[in-house]
Structure formats: C-alpha cells, structure tokens
User: What shape does this take?
Amino acid sequence: MTSGSSLRRNGRRSSRWPLEETSGCADLGSCYPRSENPDLGHPATFAALASFGAPLGGVRPEDFAESGNFFRFGHDPHGFDILPDLPGIDFESAWERRVEGVIDAQTGLKASFISAQDLIATKLAAGRPQDLADVAAIRAAIEAQGR
Assistant: This one.
C-alpha cells in the first residue's frame, strides 16, 4: 500500500487512520476454511497486511476473527474489504461452492472467490441500495453468459 492508504474499521472513520470517502470497492470475496489450517486466518492475515505496509495502528490480529468487524483498506478503485463473516451465508457451505481462478497466468497462482450465488445472498441480506443494484448486475451478467 502507498503512504496514502487508509483503513476503515467497522465502517466508521477513525482519527488514527485517515480515510477518504470510498464507494464501490470490488467484491472479490476471497476466503479460506478456518478449520483446515489454524495457522492461516487472523494471525496470517495480520502478518500479511503488516508486511504489505497496511496502516494497522490499534488493530490486533484477533480483530480479524471477530464476527461483525469490517475493515476497508485503500481508496477506490484499488480498495479492498476484510470481513470475518458475511450476512446471508455460512462459511462452510460457501467454501464448498467457492470458485477457484488463476490470478497470475505466469506462475499459475490460484485464489478462491465467493460464488455468484453466495455473493447474491450476502448482498440481498445487506439490503443497501448499492448491494441491490449489484445483485441486478450480477444476475444480468450470469444471464448474458447463458448460465
């Protein structure tokens, strides 16, 4: 992250983390099974963010495991969110339906992403106007692909 990066915690501004208003961050929904490897998860998330230079002042590794927490890093169009849980789905079921994709063709690096079905469920559960607009766009994209 650049020195101009910011962090929003639980959707609120914090005087410790300068933040510009953000909207429309991409929904990538990367996830991992917590029970599969306990070394992954909140300690690894915290360590990766720290090594990347994220502004973590006042944030503890455990904060990334607390239900209901919400972290936003960066600015549009390059911001991303970390949510320990998502409304409308349970992790185990969502993990079974995850979509795996290659994110670096040169190395073959793969990542897991939330399925369109589960992304729609979380956005409907959130129910904000932008989430409902996103649902319509996701459904239109699925229909256009003939799925």
In short: The two ends are 37 Å apart (CA to CA).
